[in-house]
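Predict structure. Chain length: 306.
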Amino acid sequence: MGCSTPEVRRLIVRARKKGLKMREITEIFGVSRWTIWRWTKRADHPGRESYKNKSKRPHNIHYKITSEVENAIIVLRDSFSWGTQRIRVMLYNPPSYIKHLLETVLGTTWKPVILSRQSINTVLMKHNRNGYPPGGKREWKYFRAEHPNDMWQIDIKGPFTIDGRRMLALIVIDDHSRFRISCRLFTHIETRDVTEELLRCFHTYSRPKKGLVDHGSQFRDMFERWCKDKKIEVVYAPVHYPQAKGKVERDIRNFKEEFLVLGKMFDDHISLLEEYNKWNNYSRYKLGINDYPANLYFGGNVAHVP
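Prediction complete.
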């Protein structure tokens, strides 16, 4: 007979108090000497005797999602309409301006926290803020150049208004690593602006073998002749098929959802562009490549991991 109920434990203690030896009690109740010692010792404690199992719940429970973390999730969701992965990145490794925003709104020093996307989604569900944007989730087919500088994807975002000015952004992405070669703002963009910016990039990062572009006016005859002179093959994406240059399209979306939205919370946020580009290349882990862009582009552990 095992010591499985409070009644049996009570009888064991009573038998021990009456002077029965340990060996006799073990034979009568079929329990170990340790069990007898355990319940006899508990019965000797002052206060009301209890032979029920004690709760194994710890006295102090340290929840990872504190009220500050929960509020931070809601602040990022409401301010920028970010999804769970982007919120996850910002909670763990935020740029300095996002960290400043969280500390200002929450009124406390922000300490990075690592959460799963499911945990963040649970918080969003709790506050009725989860769900995909209009149109639902989109599925993409991925392709990738074999080496860095095999191909650069080039595109123009805009026009958009930033700090009260009409602007456009020229964005250049390395196809292999998703390293952002360039992201510069212009009031207007012509072929000459594109080629001058690419020349600047060549001096910093070398030149690509191919350039993937759309059929915009900046990438036509004059651009093609310039690339031919530089021994760069121009590849045109099919018309009405943005998936062909999906990496730069994805980066443009990141630019819109991570940088342009900063205007809601910061004044003169153009000054944050350089820091944002550096953070994107060196400190933002990207699921599409399972690494930091700088690590793949430069072929080593050069990214900043806090």
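Summary: The longest strand covers residues 151-162.
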